[in-house]
Design brief:
The chain is mainly beta. The protein has one helix spanning 2-20; strands at 41-47, 58-64, 72-79, 95-100, 111-118, 122-131, 136-147, 155-166, 170-190, 193-214, 219-227, 232-239, 243-251, 257-268, 282-284, 291-295, 306-311, 317-323, 330-333, 340-348, 353-361. Strand 12 (232-239) and strand 13 form a beta hairpin.
């Protein structure tokens, strides 16, 4: 009798503990399939004066990053590198990311290209190009952003050599040690939602930064501008099917305060997922400074006219015009819009979508 009563009491106690215990999130693994996919458009919201904390390391954590503000948005999409202007510099790249910087400062509206190697064992940045109205910056890297598959307590270290040339006249070589550790797993909340995630902590320890000047025929050593300079810590949260959903940066120069943060605001359908018959709609020049010519080709469903709509990456309708004859050229002028990626769609008179596509403004 006592044995049965003891068993009953024990079972009740265990049931109570299971009911009262906080919900445990599932520990995940990040693989190549979770990395950004070709032709999808990614919007990152950046906070210029962040007040969030990176939170704690460990298992089954809850990170609250909902206070990251949306001060500006960087937009971009992944594409095949051989469709980009600087592919010959990075022929081993498997992916390229074309972005438009949202600001602030002089580089607002600049177009950037990141060249990457993506496979089942590594996600690696090998080079970058940044084009602004006043400067062309090219950078050769060898940075492993992720070693895959990524699990809790995965870790690696490497020496990164970054060679950056500005407008062909000034070159810097930065050598640093990077220590990467997946120091936590759990649930992270951003203004865009909550995700089961892994947190990657990356510590960068710069060793030296040398500057060279182009003399007209060769690179001449100028100076070492920093030695033993500031250590930085970067925390990035990765989720299945999303890639990086949030990022927080700290550096010792600012008393180990958070100096930068962003969250993944939105992922849109890839530009190759936009349906339009290959010979149906032609837009040129594309990219342009904002003025485009559209030819609808053999679109009998829009023969009596229709409407062209243009949307920015937030889904906002930024331009709309009606046309009467699909055989005529349609002139679009969205030059008042900032640099970036836009989506258009063509509707016939009864509102049926005739075709869709992308427009890129580069001024």
């Amino acid at each position: 009798m006592k044995t049965k009563q003891l068993l009953k009491t024990t079972l009740c106690f265990v049931a109570f503990i299971a009911w009262a215990a906080p919900k445990s999130e599932a520990q995940i693994t990040i693989t190549q399939s979770d990395m950004p996919q070709l032709w999808k458009v990614y919007l990152e919201s950046w906070d210029t004066l962040p007040t969030v904390s990176q939170g704690n390391a460990g298992a089954n954590q809850t990170w609250n990053l909902s206070a990251i503000k949306n001060d500006f948005i960087d937009s971009g999409y992944y594409q095949s590198p051989n469709n980009t202007p600087y592919y010959s510099k990075f022929p081993s790249a498997t992916d390229a990311y074309k972005s438009v910087l949202g600001g602030p400062g002089a580089l607002k509206g600049s177009v950037g290209y990141d060249y990457l190697i993506s496979n089942s064992s590594v996600y690696q940045l090998i080079g970058e190009y940044e084009v602004s109205p006043t400067v062309l910056v090219d950078t050769f890297d060898n940075e492993k952003q992720l070693v895959l598959p990524l699990n809790y307590r995965s870790n690696w270290s490497e020496t990164v050599r970054q060679v950056t040339t500005m407008s062909g006249v000034e070159r810097s070589i930065i050598v640093s040690t990077q220590l990467d550790t997946v120091d936590g797993w759990g649930s992270v909340t951003t203004p865009a939602g909550s995700y089961n995630s892994l947190r990657l902590k990356e510590v960068t320890l710069p060793q030296y930064d040398s500057v060279f000047i182009w003399s007209g025929s060769s690179w001449t050593f100028f100076q070492v501008i920093r030695t033993g300079f500031t250590k930085s810590e970067n925390f990035t949260w990765y989720a299945n099917g999303m890639g990086a959903v949030a990022d927080v940066t700290m550096d010792s120069l600012n008393g180990s305060k958070v100096t930068g943060a962003f969250y993944l605001n939105h992922v849109t359908a890839g530009v190759t997922n936009i349906s339009s018959p290959a010979d149906a709609i032609t837009v040129y020049p594309n990219p342009s400074a904002g003025q485009f010519t559209m030819e609808l080709g053999n679109q009998s469903s829009a023969a009596t006219g229709g409407t062209v709509e243009v949307f920015n990456m937030l889904g906002q309708d930024v331009y709309r015009m009606q046309f009467l004859n699909s055989n005529a050229q349609i002139q679009l002028n969205i030059s008042a819009q900032p640099n970036g990626l836009y989506l258009y769609r063509v509707l016939n008179t009864d509102g049926t979508t005739v075709g869709q596509g992308k427009l890129i403004i580069e001024k």
